[in-house]
Amino acid sequence: VPTAGRVEFRDVTFGYPGAERPVLDGVSFVAEPGQTTAIIGSTGAGKTTLLSLVSRQYDPQQGSVAIDGVSVSDLGRHEMASVVGLIPQKPYLFSGTIGSNLRFGRPEATDAELWEALRVAQGADFVREKTHGLDERVSQGGTNVSGGQRQRLCIARALVARPRVYLFDDSFSALDVATDARLREGLGEATAGATVIIVAQRVSTIRSADQILVMDGGAVVGRGTHDELLESNETYREIVES
Ligand code: GTP
Ligand code: MG
Fold first, then answer.
1. How many angstroms does the Cα of residue 199 sit away from the middle of ligand 2?
2. Is residue 46 lining ligand 1, measured as CB closer than 6 Å?
C-alpha cells in the first residue's frame, strides 16, 4: 500500500479574527501516513480549530502546517479537496441528490464506487431503502435525512474522494458502540496508507490509535499511546476516567 499524507505542525499559533487570545498556542506534532492519530481534550480545547488549519479554512498567524512537505498555504482550493478529506463535527449536505453529494470530491466516481463507500460508512442500507436510491434528493443542510445518516454520507463522501489525509471530527461519538466498531474496522482497510486524524471522546475509539495527542487550552499537553499516557499524563487519566 503506497503511503502519503504526512501532516506536520511546526510551532503553530492561531487566533480567530477579532479574538483577543490565541486558540492554538505553539502546537507542534507530526501525523504519519498509514497511522491513526487521535486527538482528545475537553470542549473548547481547540480540536476542531486544529483540523480547520489542516483543511486550510484558516491560516496560522505563526508557524507552519505542511502536508508531505508542502505548506498547505501553497495548495489551491481544488488541489486541497483531493489532498484532505474533512468529515466535519456538524456534517452537512449540499442540495442535490445523494449521488451528487457523494461525488463532490471526485465527479468521475462510478456508482459501484459510491456503493462501496456507503457500505464501509454503514450507510448502504438506508440509501437502498430510499425510493430513488442514489438519485434521492436531499436539501441543503440535509433536513430530510437524520443526523446519523448525514454523518455516514459525509464519511462516504470523503472515502469516494480518496484523499491522502482524513480528518474525522467527532464522527463516531454519536454511534452505538457496535456500529462504531464495525465502521472503524471497515475504515481501517478503506483508508490504509493514508494519514488518519480522529478527534474522539470515547476511549474505545482512541485506544488502538498509533498516537494520541492530548489537548488542553489550545496546547498539546501529552502525546503517546494509550498505555503510555495512562502512565504519564494526568490530563489523559482525568479524561479517561470521567
Ligand atoms: P468541542 O468540539 O466542543 O469538543 O471543542 P473543540 O476542542 O473542538 O474546540 P474549538 O476548536 O471548536 O474551539 C476552541 C476555542 O475557539 C473555543 O474557545 C471556541 O469558543 C473558539 N472558537 C471556535 N470557533 C470559533 C469561531 O469561529 N470564531 C471565534 N471567534 N471563536 C471560535
Ligand atoms: Mg470541536
1. 8
2. yes
